[in-house]
Model the fold of this input.
Amino acid sequence: MTGLVQGVGFRPFVYRMAMKYALTGWVQNTNENVRICVSGTAVDLDNFVISLEKEAPPASMIENIATSELAVQDFVGFTILHSDDLSDDITEISPDIAVCDACLEDIKKQGTRLGYAFVNCTNCGPRFTIIRDLPYDREKTTMQPFAMCPDCRKEYETITDRRFHAQPTACSRCGPHYELIVRGNPVSADINVIASQAANVLENCGIVLIKGLGGMHLACDALDENAVGRLRLIKNRDGKPFAVMFRDLGTLRQFAFVDDVAQQSLVSWRRPIVLLEMKKDTSPALAENINSGLNLVGVMLPYMPFHHQLFQRLKTHAIVLTSGNFSSEPILTGNDQAISQFTSFVDALVLHNRDIYNRTDDSVARIMDGRERILRRSRGYAPAPVRTGMDVDGILAFGAELTNCFCIGKGQKAFLSQHIGDLQGLETMQFYEETISQYLKLFRMKPSLLAVDLHPEYNSTKTARHYGGLPVVRVQHHHAHIASCMAEHHLDEKVIGIALDGTGFGDDGHTWGSEFFVCDLNGYERVTHFEYLPLPGGDLAAEEPWRMAVSYLYKVYGDDFSKLALPLFSGIDPEKIAMVVRMIDRKVNCPLTAGAGRLFDAVSSLVGLCQVATFQAEGPMRLEALVRNDCYEKYTFDVDKTIRFDATIKGIVHDLTGGVSLPVIATKFHNTIISVIFEISNTIRAREKISKVVLSGGVFQNKYLLEGSVALLRENNFQVYTHAAIPANDGGIALGQVAVASKRRELKCV
Ligand code: ZN
Ligand code: ZN
Ligand code: FE
Done:
């Protein structure tokens, strides 16, 4: 059997099935598969194979069961053979699994596990975060220093036990433990004291640093405005929304709209953060400064025993649980670092002595068009491979610059790394380089082909130079976006590829980001794109949407734009506006951009929603938050060689000065973009006879835009492909790079 069949309780499950059908023989973990040799009647053998597929443990994923008949042998009973280190082909590594209900029960009842926060079993517990090497055995995890006590050893060796071969199994006598540290001093190692005191700090406007599965978290009462404000100061994070952990599903429902699909994600063993729309005017309510007044909040449910133990002692309904780091640095994993960096900022630290080997953040998902869409792929998802259906062996893809993930190819599987972050600070670069090395070692992969973004100055592109001497495939950013979505759906043909996002290096040297391609995995024809506009101040313009608004207004109205009575002018120094106009006139620091994100920025500024962004994509998010579902109007636009929005801008200005409400304007604008997507797709279909449309790029994290585009295209008999398991943002780029590199190698164009 191949697939995700190690570290998910598979061998004991096989054993139980063998018992059920009275079979004799053996099962063995190797690093390429799980092998089973069984003897019994034909009927029992058939039923056994059916049961293997039907009743497999929740976190397992069977890729293939290959069977063949062997000469009859005599076995005594059914045994589990020792793991064999056979070859460089590996099986997969399970992502971390949220604590199961049976283990939560054990904490309440089992003598040596009463209140024991590191309880786990073959169905749950840490996996990827503690694994140093394969095959998955305790000595190759960060549980290695903890020798099992006789009782744990007995369970571990008892085939019928739920902890049979549960590598991280432990109890209060032999396993890791938590420690509470206050003002630099260890206070207690008693879990009851730790949980009670931590709860007490949280109830009193305090901040607690808590060591988790893949890194440290910072926590505070999510209903306490002052506590959240304190946390913002510590994190040095102006407005970026915080994730919130709720006590349980019932409590969450009092605060947010939870549909069936969202519920499935929230309670799944992967336990991602799910972006949910909050109910208005609830009492009590979440602190306003959690999400800067946006209607979406990232929420999750407890997934470690300690989370449950903490909530047992907390009166509040929810806590902020945000990554323990200073903005722009990766999430902290080491105890010493946590103590030295955070002791003076937080009121208490809850650490433990099980090391984190593979750093992972919480994953983030959003439910769109009735499906879970991963926006940040990390804990619970990585490092499960993407089955590409093509030969990606030996390909190492370095990803983009922001929201980076890299990707390695092994056989037909692409192992997309966990979320790394923005490759800008020293710490993140270290994390990036270390994690690449760890993946190469863990998955026993020797790269033979490299894939990088076309942008020569990306730190990812530069990192590839350390792997000198290997052939390099350079992939245009938006082609990689489309290829990523194609790889997710096993598409290998000509498609209409529409990539809408903020930025990306184009092959004409300008900034792209609104690409309408006819493309396949090998290459693309850029059919059209949004008209180029000056981006006054370059990268600064992405942080200050008003600059882009000036760029559009100046283009449409010329000097007259300053006479328009717009909210824009109330907040920004007229001197600065005049300076931006001069920059545009003189073409100083005004690269040309076609980024769709910049148009969203400009409109968010025009309507007065966001002049200076306090976090990435704030303007577009605020604009989307206003959208209504009962407005079908749109603005006009022009299509010649490019797509021009002069008429759209005029329409918005007209509506603004005519007193049309902002929600209507925001909706009309979204409808306009949906209409552009549809109209261009139609034109291309008529010309090329292609009806498969692939949508990718960060702009498609916008629910209204994605759902509206998909619905309109489907109604008109397009087949539409969108991201679900792979992020539509730059976190998915590396998978696209792998797919393009594989195709070019196949066509011998490398
Ligand atoms: Zn369990
Ligand atoms: Zn023990
Ligand atoms: Fe992008």
